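Collaborator request log, item 7. Partner lab (contact: R.S.) asked for a structural prediction of CRISPR repeat RNA endoribonuclease Cas6 to inform their binding assays.
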Amino acid sequence: MVDLEADADATYLTNYHHKLRGRFWRALEGSAFESEHGDGAPMGLAFSNVFPWGDIEEGDERTVLVASPRESLLATIAEDLRTDREFNVGEMAFRVTDLSALDVDVGEPGTRGTIETATGVFVRLYERHREEYGIEPSRSDADTPTYWRPAHTVEPFRDAITDNLQRKHERFAPSYVPGPRAVDGDLFEGYDLIKTYALPVTVTQGVELDVVVSKWRLDYRVRDDAHRKHLNLALDTGLGGRNALGFGFANVVDRTRPGETELEGEDALA
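Returned to partner:
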């Protein structure tokens, strides 16, 4: 968790993704991770927006959450932020005031809970998804993946985020743990769509895309240790694609462990 204090008044930058990513990549310059920039493989880095959302006054306190299954990656970023406390996101100028570690876990088998995506989930449906679910691409999508929209139903969204997590599992999880595609049962028991929205995003210097993303509340019940690892990996890496731009960052917002009442579970997260 990165605690920030604003150096000056600023309008909140809604198209913050490229600039915020840039600050983290600056922290990785000269490290063993620098060569991974743009190599196409999952980075294993997810982060929230600067929150709370809204225009900024000098002295305001804001926060950014950063997650990764790679402890050395987080340690490298943290070391840079300790020595270089300037944290600018475009015209939003901050200084780092504190860094702290959070121990986030969906809970042991039998735990029920809800994961909420704090930033939009980036999901594109490829040709095999479109064929399986009978999705006709628009004229503009004919030769490119289709952004998921509510009209496509939940099933292709579910399959796309599971396929994406399988790829991350193969990169970051121990080989003896079966991946989310190799087990019976879905990642989540419930998919509650909060909203879908479009926004322009700078994906690299001089290249801007209009993307469609969605926010969700996702209910889960931890079936076993493998499922627990899958859900925790989703928290560490983000859901869906383009996580290194800040998409798909997720938090546990409700959790009830075996033997607890729902109220006790809510108090545990307070």
